[in-house]
Amino acid sequence: MKKIFTILAVSVIAIASAQTNAFKGSDFENFTDFTNSINSYGLKAYATQGVGLGVGGSASLNINATPTGNDYVFTALATAPLPTNKKEITLMVKGVSGGKSLSFNVYMTDGSYYVFNLGDLSTSPVTLAVSASNDYIGTINTGGAYVKVTLPLTGLANINEDPTKNFFAVKAGKNALFNIDIDDIKIVDGNLAVADLTKAKKSLVKNTNVSNTISFAGKSDIQILNMNGQVVKSASVNENSPLNISSLTKGVYIVTGKVDGETVSQKIIKN
C-alpha cells in the first residue's frame, strides 16, 4: 500500500502548479521585507504584522480599523523574476467586516490595472473576475477560519514585472469596521512543478524521510508545499541546521529552494 500511495502522490505533484510569494515579504513572516517592497505611499498605520495570527500560527497582515476613505492599504512593487506563465494570484483571508469589502489591483506595464472586487466572503473559497472599477460592496465573515481567494491571471496581457513599478494593491472600503487578517499572497506558475523534480541534480534536503525536523545541505530560502500545491511553511535555512516541521501533518510534501543559483525541488515524506 505504501508503494501505491507514493505513486499516487507523485501523480498529484505532476499536475500541481508551483507557487511562490507574489512579491517580497508577501507571506508577512519577515515584515521588513514586506514593508521594503511597498511603494512610496507606504503602509496604512492600522495594518500591522499579526504575529501568530496567520495560517497555521504563522504571521499575517492584520487590518483592524474603520477607514475614512476607500484606502490603499498598501501597494507592492514587482519582485523579479515573476513566472513566465502567470496562472493566478491566491491569498488567504480571515475575519469580519461591517458592511464593506476589499478590492485588489494587479498592475500593467503602463501603470493601469486590472481590478478584482472581493464582494461577499463567507466560509467557501472564491474565484474573482476582472471588474471595470473598484467597488467595496459586500461583507466579510469567514467564521474564524482562513478562506482562499483566487485572482485568475490567464489571458491578462502586459502584467508588470518591472521592480520599480507597482504590481499589486489591496484597497478597503470606507466607513466600515474591518477586523481581518490576510496571509500568503502567492503567484501560481502554470508550468508543471514536476519539471523541477525530474531535472534536479543538486541536493537541497539531506533527509527525505522525516519525523519532526529536516536537515539541509546548504543555505537557502525554502518553501514547503503540500500535495495541493499550497505553501505550508517558508523559512531561511542554513547547512546542517534542522528545521522544525512538527506542526505539519503526516504525508508527502515538496521542498523547494535555490542551490548555487539553481532551483531544486525534492519530495519528503513526513512520518
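The record above closes out task 2.4. Task 2.5 opens with a second protein, given below.
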Amino acid sequence: MGYSYLQLLSDLLKFQDTRDHAFMSTYLRADYFHLTVIHNVLVLGIALSGKLPRLVSRLVTVFL
C-alpha cells in the first residue's frame, strides 16, 4: 500500500476535516475505499464472532 494503515487513516481524517476531496489522489481514494470495506468487515466480524485474531489472519491471507 505504501502507507501504514494508521498513517493513511490519519491523512484521510485530515481530508475529511478540510473537505478538500478535490486534492485527494485517485490512489488515496482507492485505498480509502478498500480501508472502508476492510473496516466494515472487521467490525461486522468482531460483532458477530468476537474472534479477532482468527478474523485478522483470515483477512490478511485474503488481501495479501
